[in-house]
Amino acid sequence: MTDPLLQQTLKGVFRLAAPEIALIGTACVVFLFGCMYNRRWLWFAVSLAGVGLAAILAGTVKTQMPAVVTAAPIIPDTAAAFVRWVAIITAAVLVFVSWGEVDGANAAEYYGCLLVAAAGVSLVGRANDLITLFLALELLSIPTYVLLYLPARSKLNQEAAAKYFLLSVMSSAIMLFGFSYLYGLTGSTNLVVITDTVTKAHAETLNPMALLAAVFVVAAMGFRITAVPFHFYAPDVYEGGPLGVVAQIAFFPKVAGFVALARVLGLFASDPRHIPFDAYTQLPLLLWILAIMTMCVGNVLALLQDNIRRMLAYSSVAHGGYMLMGVVIASSLPDVNPDAKNQPGIGGMDALLVYLVAYGMMTIGAFAVILFLSTPDRPVESIDDLAGLGRTHPVSAAAMAIFLFSLIGLPLTAGFAGKLLLFIGAINAPTHTTEMRDLYRVMAIVAAVNAAVAAYYYLRVIGVMYLRSPIRQPSDSRAYPTALAAVVLAGATLFFGIYPQPIVKAARNAAPVPATKATVANPKQ
Amino acid sequence: MSEPISLALVILVLPLAAALLTASWSGEILKKAAHWPLIISCAVSTVLAFLLVGQVTDFATGRIISSPVTWFAAGKLKVNFTITIDALSATMLAMITFVSTMIAVFSSGYMRGDKGYARFFAVMSVFVFSMCGLVLANNFILLVAFWEGVGLCSYLLVGYYFEKPSAAAAARKAFLVTRLGDTGFLLGIFLLWRMGGWHTDLTALFDHIQKNPPDQGTLTTACLLLFCGAVGKSAQFPLYVWLPDAMEGPTPVSALIHAATMVTAGVYLLARCAPLFALSPDAQITVAWIGGLTALLAAFIALAQTDLKRILAYSTVSQLGYMFLALGTCGAISPTFAVTAAMFHLFTHAFFKALLFLSAGSVMHAMGGVIDVRYFRGLRKRLPVTHITFLCGAAALAGVPLLSGFWSKDLILESLTEASESNSPYTAGYFTLLLLAFFTAFLTAFYTFRAYFLTFWGEEKIPEEAGHHLNGAKGGVHESPSVMTLPLIVLAAGALLVGIVLEPFTHWFSDFLGTTPSLGQVRTPSAVSVKGEEHHFNWTIAIISSVFALGGIGLAAVMYRKGEEKLPAGLEPVFTLSRNKLYVDDIYYAVLVKPAEVLAFLARVFDGFLDALSRLVAAIPRFIGQWIRPIQNGLVQFYALWMAMGLAVFLSFVFRITR
Fold it and tell me: Which of A378, A379, A362 is nearest to A414 (CA)?
């Protein structure tokens, strides 16, 4: 601890996490005074103020890379900034969305937990250390258990909370097991050190223990990104959980899971020489299988659902599969030659980030609409409950239709831009062996067929909304902030569908495409 | 931005503005007047489109491309908002806007008093917008965006009478079947992007491929994938099944979307991509065969249908097949000639098919929604204007000499003749297709006039439902209001005259379309490139096709002039086969739908099995701990077990492979 640079690095940590500190600080205030004032609007306003403060801090506090990256627990790189903004903006949106289901009695706890979860996601983005990463992931998980249990009104509700808790703990255990191997192998918890050491070791011989660790991490993250067979909780939890929390569970853990996976597998590095598990290690092949399995199972099971929440759960599984394609592409960038002029078009992670944002908008939006239409005595459960929505609630129906079209991936919606980048990335993935490249093409084709099939069950909902007559009284919901969030999200889905450039640019800035040699010029390694 | 570009953008924006206006003011202000925005915008667009046609020939290079505005960019993927105006797109634009105007006027009468009057016109406006965008787009991704927009509008309009379950089912079928083709289309675009120098702009991509010819296999694959999209949209075999069902939509929709515009998008796509297809003889002959088979198959099915609109729908499928036949010769003969033949047929077909559909709509209007030819006959006295206009359309479709259908069909047949005499590797195939096309022409004439005689000749017979239409008495059956008959008359004049004016003597159409630069620059591999494609009128073909057409009409007249269906004994099996649509739908059901249902059933069984298994697993802890039941129904262990097993499988997989 005598090295001044080291000291400076460790002291600078708080500066790097100022917005997260603001979020958690606000949460503490909310928790503390929540027992004294149980007014919904008050905690709504305080939470918004907290999120606003975090946003201001994120925009103003100047940060620089720590002097000793190999010791820094937190790093402020571009990917971290991207994730932080996603977390902050989503937190603001979720505060609005959840207005429809909080009541005075639990408002403080609800909003407090939401802020802590958002801080957790943001921290996952900047964790540079296994310990920080684990803590950040738990910072996301633990408030979620509370949130799921908070409005526990029914058995279904409690069951969902318990299931999520138990399985999440199990996945954390699996993750810790993987982390312990990584530490044992490299003698460090620092991610930069770990990826460097493992990459160097793999240059000579493949270390089976490193591979074991990687598989464990993939499995643990598989729970968060609802990859098959770690997706089982999703339909039950989505069905039983409070809608606002479900909207959060559909998005936050996916962000955290993908980002954490990318961090551990070294996929955010702009230099693919630091990918410790490249195509030689068969990890990309495993991820390939995971992606295909996830999208196929998700879509097929979604086809069978009559409950809209379960359908959206399986749809979210399927979208997790599409996004996994991005990881597969990114983990297959071999044959490094930074000087080569011919760059691969899309690095995988950039496409994934674009898709992630698009997915967040449309999924949270869809849940917001359902939340708006649900009232405690008349919840929206089955798809038939939406019958004739086009006539009873034209605005809600239009917003829902936009989200569903985006989930289908129709052009001029944000979902299309995301899918397009992922598909093109897959078709164009640079690989050193022709066998591998064919696999990527197969993946693109399977994904395209899946996307075509998926249109069926989304379209069914649109059909029910517009082509059937209403079978129940229009809902008299007064959750206007929820409706506002849905409308804003629908507008954003359209806007970024028509003009996706800002997101694409930000994502590519966050995950720069590594330079590699052209595959055409050098088909054999 | 040059003047023609701004003109094109105005044409594009007008229908969109109409859509927004109609949608946002549909509540009170425009409730009764919802048709005005569409009619006005379409009419203005038509005028502008004709101005544009006048300007195209003055372009120095034959086309104008707007300066690209980046839509989004990622690495080598760069997608631009850019439009191109050349003879091809100007022709399409003029055709689309003109036919749309006519149909908009007709619909304002036809749809009057309907519940969703404003919704109908709003969606129609979006449709016109998407279609105009589709033909103007100079970027593949942009093209896909409009392409899907067109499909979406079609979905909304086919499902317009959503109270009818059959309409909702038809809408879904249309959307999903065309999307199946679109999947191939998208993959084709990605493939082209890879081999086309990472361009997504059509012109840049074609230039690149002209300069650096890729290997045949890849190019053929890309072309066939593009063709998949066209097969879906233009209802070709094997994806044509959606179009007849799409007749569940209101008749003006059938006229506009399923006859004149949307279904021609596939033809347009292939015409636009002719520079690519010309380089791949294998792709061309596939296109030609698919087109030829579809033409014959659909014409055969149309023989015995009794639903007037369905007869017309199958005829549309068949005529689109004709257009693909012509496009399939591109490369074996000069692409300019092949594309001109296809586009000219598209152009004339738009007139007479829109006319036929609208006339059918007029009949349906008078018959109180009945459209089955078995329930009415002898309507020529009651509906004099409709009778005459339907006759004009039918004669043009049948290819009666000197009418527009005759001239355009003649061009297609001639392109096939030339292809069979070229030095393409597939001359025998083209010759077979020529014979097929002649036979189809005969069938076309027959079924068209069968429908005509069954509807308008014989003793008068009017269905019960017509009585409810107006005045409550049968005497109330009368000709449609002038707002409906006027467009019919205009279109009828077009169906009669547009062919003879534009092509056989003046060559205006082929000269104009010949200025399209993308067609002129094609280097064909067979290098026959018929120079100076001066259209010599081929008397042999003209006479043969006239004989076939008149023969078909004559036969129909002999069999059906009483307005009743009486079949000679020998023809009964043929008609049964035709009436059952060659059992294609049943085959699809058996081969595609049934297995899917079985699969779904198995999935349910499997689901049940898992459920039972989970119950079994759950039963054990339930005995142990009744008291923790509220939070645990046992499934959790089962899920955890799956997760652990998944992990184990992953590990064994990775290690087995690595070893």
Answer: A362
Chain A residue with CA closest to B653: the answer is A286
The confidence score (pLDDT) of residue B111 equals 79
Whether the per-residue pLDDT at B175 is higher than 90: the answer is: no
Chain A residues with beta carbon closer than 8 angstroms to that of B608: none
B603 and A466: CB-CB below 8 Å? no
Spatial distance between the Cα atoms of A388 and B546, rounded to a whole number of angstroms: 54
In the predicted structure, residue B622 carries a pLDDT above the cut 80: no
The two structure tokens encoding residue A62: 């100047």
Residue-wise pLDDT tens digits, B381-437:
888 888 888 888 888 888 888 888 888 888 888 888 888 887 777 888 888 888 888
Q: Does A307 contact chain B (CB < 8 Å)?
A: no
Nearest CA in chain B to A405: B152
Residue from the list B187, B600, B651 with its beta carbon closest to the beta carbon of A215: B651
- CB contact residues (below 8 A), chain A span 371-430, against chain B: 405, 410-412, 416-417, 420-421, 423-424, 427-428
pLDDT in tens, A269-308: 656 566 777 766 778 888 999 999 999 888 888 877 888 9
CB atoms within 10 A of CB B640: 18
- Quick: pLDDT tens for A193-204: 888 888 888 777
Residue B592, pLDDT above cutoff 80: no
Q: Can you give the pLDDT at residue B597?
A: 67
- The pLDDT assigned to A344 comes to 56
Is residue A23 within 8 Å of residue A139, measured between CB atoms? no
Contact B650 A456 (CB under 8 A): no
Under 8 Å CB-to-CB from B36, ≥6 apart: which residues? B30
- Which residues, 6 or more positions from A316, have their beta carbon under 8 angstroms from its beta carbon? A226, A234, A238, A250, A254, A298, A363
CB atoms within 10 A of CB B627: 6
Please tell me if residue B120 touches chain A, with a CB cutoff of 8 Å. no
**Tens-digit pLDDT profile for residues A499-513:** 888 898 898 888 877
- Tell me how close the Cα of B635 comes to any Cα of chain A, in angstroms: 8
* Chain A contact set for B628 (CB, 8 A): none
The residues near B377 (Cβ < 8 Å, ≥ 6 apart) are: B454, B455, B456, B457, B458, B459, B460, B461, B563, B564
pLDDT for position B124 = 87
What pLDDT is recorded for position B528?
44
Which residues lie below 8 Å from residue B464, measured CB to CB, with a gap of 6+? Answer: none
Find where tokens 């995950």 sit.
Answer: A511
* In contact, A305 and A311? CB cutoff 8 Å: yes
- Chain A contact probe: residue of B143, B643, B659 with most A CBs at under 10 A: B643
Contacts of A55 (CB under 8 A, 6+ apart): A19, A88, A92
Measured between beta carbons, the chain A residues lying within 8 angstroms of B160 are none
What DSSP character marks residue B83? B
Query: Would an 8 Å CB–CB cutoff place B248 in contact with chain A?
Result: no
User: Which chain B residues have a beta carbon less than 8 Å from that of A163?
Assistant: 635-636, 639
Single-letter residue type at B572: E
Give how far the C-alpha of residue A205 lies from the chain's centroid of Cα atoms, to the nearest Å.
34
Q: If you compute the radius of gyration of chain A from its CA atoms, what whole number of angstroms results?
A: 22
**Mean pLDDT across the stretch A204-221?**
87
Q: Is the pTM of this model over 0.90?
A: no
H runs (alpha helix) in A150-274: 155-186, 191-204, 208-224, 233-240, 243-264
Name which of A174, A347, A417 is nearest B72 (Cβ-Cβ): A417
Strand, coil or helix: A503: helix
How many residues in chain A? 525
Structure-block tokens of residue A75: 């790093």
Q: Between chains, do B71 and A500 touch, taking CB under 8 Å as contact?
A: yes
